Amino acid sequence: MTSFVPENAVVWFEIPVTDMARAKTFYGAVLQNELTDQNEGPNPMSVFKAAGQTSVSGHIYPGKPAADGAGNTIHLAVAAPLEEAMERVTANGGKVLSRVISIPAGRFAYCLDPDGNSIGLFTT
């Protein structure tokens, strides 16, 4: 069997949301990273900004989220301090589910967006 080892295990992510405007406001405020509308594809979407064209990113789109916390967890980069990003989660209609967790690569916390999508906020 041939082994395939990509440069990035994740190449794109999609987060389904029920209200695009609310989700753009939530993610823009929490991540302090304004999303950019792109409507060239089959669905409207708003893309998370990343440093370069080869950087891994993703988008939100009108869809049906999994039940609260039942879907995959996407870990999203936030600027330090992580605790301030956690405060922005609750201030913008989401829920913080965990305390700050430290691992060798950095620090993160589990949260839910206003639609119940499971997200992690991560900082180095």
Automatic annotation (TrEMBL):
Which residue spans adopt a coiled-coil conformation according to this UniProt entry?
none
Q: What is this protein called?
A: Glyoxalase
Q: Which InterPro entries match?
A: Anthracycline_SecMetBiosynth (IPR052164), Glyas_Bleomycin-R_OHBP_Dase (IPR029068), Glyas_Fos-R_dOase_dom (IPR004360), VOC_core (IPR037523)
Q: One matching Pfam family, short form? A: Glyoxalase
User: Which residues does the UniProt record annotate as the domain VOC?
Assistant: 9-124
What phylogenetic lineage does the species belong to?
A: Bacteria, Pseudomonadati, Pseudomonadota, Alphaproteobacteria, Hyphomicrobiales
User: In which domain of life is the source organism classified?
Assistant: Bacteria
